[in-house]
Design brief:
It contains nine helices and twelve strands. By secondary structure, the protein is an alpha+beta fold. The strands form three sheets. Strands 1-2-9-4-7 form a five-stranded antiparallel sheet. Strand 11 and strand 12 form a beta hairpin. Helix 1 packs across helix 2, helix 4 crosses helix 5 and helix 7 packs across helix 8. The termini are far apart. About 30% of the residues are buried.
Length: about 240
C-alpha cells in the first residue's frame, strides 16, 4: 500500500519546506545543508478530512510529518468500538512505530481535518537514522513520549471516573489553543477519546453545564469555571 500516492502533491518553495523541517523536534540537530538534503528527499502533500493513511497490518512504507491539521490514531475493538489512542497536531510525526522496528502498523491513522504533510520514504528514514545518531536518539524520545502518553491514558481509564477524565480532556484541548473554548469535536468524538459511550458523554456534559462548569454549543464547549473543572479532573 503506497500511502504517498493517494494524496495530492503540493509545490512549496525550498526555503519554506526547509524552515518547516527545522522546526520538527527530531530534526533540530541537523545543519542547514542536511535539511536541504532532506528537502530533496521529502514530498509535501495535502489531503481532505477522512483520509486513512494506514491501517493495522499495513507495511510501514513511509514516515509522515504533520505540518497542518489534525490526525487521529485509533484502534477498533472486536465488537467494532473505536478507541482513540492519540490525536496529533502540527509538528507531530506518525508512522514511526513500524519504520523503526515493528514492521507493521497496529493502529489506524486518519485525518480528522484537512491536512498538509511531509512524507519520507522508509529507505530515506533508515539512511538518516543510521548516519545521524542525534536523529535516532530523537526518534527514541518520540517513541518514549508516545508510550508514556498511552500509559497515562490507560491509568486514567483504570482509576478515574468518566467525569474526571472528561474534565481533564476538556482542559487539555482548551490548553492546546490557549483559550477557554474547545471547537470542532462532537459528543461521539469525546466518547471515543475517553473509551466510553456517546450517551454517557452527553449525560456527563449536561451535568457539567447544569453545574455551571461549561457552556455547550454546536461542536463547541466553552469553559465557565476552570478551577471547578480542574478540581474535578484531579478527583
Amino acid at each position: 500500500m503506497n500511502q504517498a500516492k493517494t494524496m495530492t502533491t503540493n509545490r512549496q518553495t525550498p526555503s519554506g519546506k526547509v524552515d518547516y523541517l527545522s522546526q520538527i523536534h527530531i530534526f533540530r540537530d541537523l545543519s542547514h545543508t542536511e535539511l536541504q538534503e532532506m528537502d530533496r528527499q521529502t514530498t509535501m502533500a495535502s489531503c481532505a478530512a477522512g483520509k486513512i493513511f494506514y491501517m493495522p497490518e499495513d507495511a510501514g512504507e513511509v514516515l509522515f510529518l504533520l505540518k497542518k491539521g489534525r490526525v487521529q490514531l485509533y484502534r477498533m475493538s472486536p465488537n467494532g468500538k473505536k478507541i482513540v489512542v492519540a490525536t496529533l497536531g502540527p509538528g507531530a510525526i506518525f508512522g514511526e512505530m513500524s519504520i523503526v522496528g515493528q514492521g507493521m502498523h497496529n493502529t489506524f491513522a486518519e485525518a480528522i481535518t484537512e491536512c498538509m504533510l511531509c512524507v519520507m520514504s522508509r529507505s530515506d528514514v533508515d539512511r538518516l537514522i543510521r548516519v545521524k545518531p542525534d536523529v535516532a536518539f530523537r526518534f527514541v524520545q518520540a517513541l518514549g513520549e508516545r508510550v508514556t502518553h498511552l500509559e497515562s491514558r490507560l491509568e486514567d481509564i483504570a482509576f478515574k471516573s468518566i467525569p474526571s477524565r472528561l474534565a481533564g480532556l476538556i482542559l487539555d484541548l482548551a490548553a492546546e489553543t490557549d483559550t477557554k473554548t474547545v471547537r470542532g469535536y462532537t459528543h461521539q468524538d469525546f466518547a471515543e477519546m475517553l473509551g466510553t459511550y456517546r450517551e454517557t458523554t452527553t449525560q456527563t456534559l449536561n451535568e457539567f453545564k447544569t453545574k455551571g462548569l461549561i457552556e455547550i454549543g454546536r461542536k463547541r464547549i466553552t469553559i465557565r469555571d476552570q478551577s471547578g473543572l480542574q478540581t474535578l479532573a484531579t478527583d
